[in-house]
Amino acid sequence: MQASTKTPSGKSSHVSRQVERSRMRAVMNNIILHLHPTRVPASALRLTYTWGLGGLSALLTVILISTGILLMFRYDASVERAYASIQFLETQVMFGSLLRSVHHWAANLLLVTVFLHMLRVFFTGSYKKGRATNWLVGIALLLLVVSFNFTGYLLPWDQLAYWAVTVATSLLSYIPLIGNALTTFLLGGPEVGQATLRNFYAIHVAVLPALLLLTMSYHFWRIRKDGDISQPERDDKVLKLTTIPYLIQIELAAAALLITSILLWAMFVPAPLEEMANPAHPPNPAKAAWYFLGLQELLLHMHPLAAMMLPGLILLGVALIPFWDTRSEDIGIYFRSSTGKKIALSAAVLGVVLPIVLVVLDEYWVDFPGWLPGLPTIVSNGMIPLVLTMAGLGIIYWSFQKLFKGNRSESTLGLVTFLFISLITLTIIGIFFRGPNMALIWPW
Ligand code: HEM
Q1: Distance, CA of 377 to CA of 398 (rounded, Å)
Q2: Separation of alpha carbons 358 and 273, rounded Å
């Protein structure tokens, strides 16, 4: 029992505490019901539908912004002092090392959860029925999250940071039309240096957070505007449950699990910090950040212009999916249909096998510049592999239609699944199977 004491006004403080508590609860409920509808279909509460990936991405963003603000109190964006300020934070500041680790791992995990969230939205066809705009907003969020990671990568100013950013920015100049201007703007000089560090810092702590918060707020608003999250049409009239407590208790449990896991992981696996950056000593191999290694792998096989154009064209295609695949009957159903499941499975297997075969063939046998010595390399090693790859993608789409009798939605599912899994395969090759001079190695 709670003791109740009389205040000078004669009112019981116990009563006023109760009033205060119910007022706070009303405010909290109000915030929750701004973000969520009052009732949600029971089917949308199944964890195995969304896997909570959008919510976890949002929570990770909150964690990143809060830990990022704390890091700003100690970080010094100067090439002479940045590395030392990180060392100071790690060794002299209470919980400094944990703080940096949480920020580092949450940033990496966010890339994974956003990518998986995108896969879930794609596999359930949740870009259909008026959700095209939110799919496009999602693509913008994906690019923002990647830019966040990329700009943050340089800040510790260690060897890993310096060379990963040097490799990645050297690629940017090959982006058609805007490449050179973008590189000059980002680097602020001929190479990665003080101006680059200052630029990256400003973009990382001011420009991107503002853009991300705005875009994310719009994303959430659109979910409400689009009639809340998707569900199969047959579930339209099913039982609805109140958001409070049914949805909220699931979200709180997922949040508690995520925060505990990140804290435990960060306690036992500190964020890496190599030697201080040394522009005179590139490591061998000089690799980009892990999430760019799929793209760096392309660069080993094609002229840089083609290696930039291919992912650009694919991203454009992925952005336009809702305008191509408008069949709404299969919205909210994982992999569309039983035919869709077969196509997706075949596409996933192909996405593992084909890139490995092509990488090995190109490493040891294919040699377009040698076979076509009369042509400039931008054609023999650029346009020819690019056109062949695009033709190959067309054949894959066509095979799903012919072999599996897939409709447009199912064949698109197959093609895009192939692309997603190929990206993962190429990234794994880049992380584990590339050694000194970026030669293929056997890691074990
Ligand atoms: C920081 C990144 C992102 C955050 C925080 C976020 C958050 C969310 C949340 C909380 C939902 C509600 C359902 C769920 O949890 O799955 C959602 C739905 C949705 N998201 Fe995202 N999202 C992000 C990125 C993306 C990306 C990269 C895409 C796709 C390119 C995307 C497309 C969509 C679509 C179309 C919906 C509606 C899905 C449906 O109706 O079932 N989002 N997002």
Answers
A1: 30
A2: 35
CA of 344 to the centre of ligand 1 (A): 21
Q: Which helix (H) or strand (E) element contains residue 143?
A: helix 132-154
Listed residues 258, 283, 308: the one ending a domain: 283
Expressed in angstroms and rounded, the spacing between residue 117 Cα and the centre of ligand 1 is 6
Q: How far is CA 165 from the centre of its chain?
A: 18
320-342: b (≥16 Cβ within 10 Å) or e: ebbeebeeeebbbbbbbbebbeb
Q: Rounded to an integer, what distance in angstroms lies between the CA atom of residue 155 and that of residue 197?
A: 7
120-135 pLDDT, tens digit per residue, is 999 999 999 899 999 9
Nearest CA residue ID for atom 11, ligand 1:
54
Q: Is the CB of 141 under 6 A from ligand 1?
A: yes
Find out whether 117 and 54 touch, Cβ atoms under 8 Å: yes
Question: 351 C-alpha vs ligand 1 centroid, how far in Å?
Answer: 24
Structure tokens at 161: 């940071």
The model's pTM is: 0.92
Shared-domain flag, residues 356 and 403: yes
**The one-letter amino acid at 134:** N
Q: Is the CB of 321 under 6 A from ligand 1?
A: no
Rounded to 10°, the helix 132-154/208-225 angle is 160
Whether 313 is in a domain gets the answer: yes
Q: C-alpha 350: how far from its chain's center?
A: 23
Q: What is the pLDDT of residues 67-119, one digit of tens each?
A: 999 999 999 999 999 999 999 999 999 999 999 999 999 999 999 999 999 99
Q: How far is CA 142 from CA 67, 156, 287, in A?
A: 21, 23, 22
User: In this structure, are 85 and 192 located in the same domain?
Assistant: yes
Q: How far, in Å, is the centroid of ligand 1 from the Cα of 241?
A: 21
Residue 13 lies in a domain: yes
Pairwise CA distance, residues 154 & 186, whole Å:
12
Q: What is the DSSP letter of 270?
A: P
Domain range for 330 is 297-444
Q: Which of 427, 362, 356, 417 is nearest to 388 (CA)?
A: 362
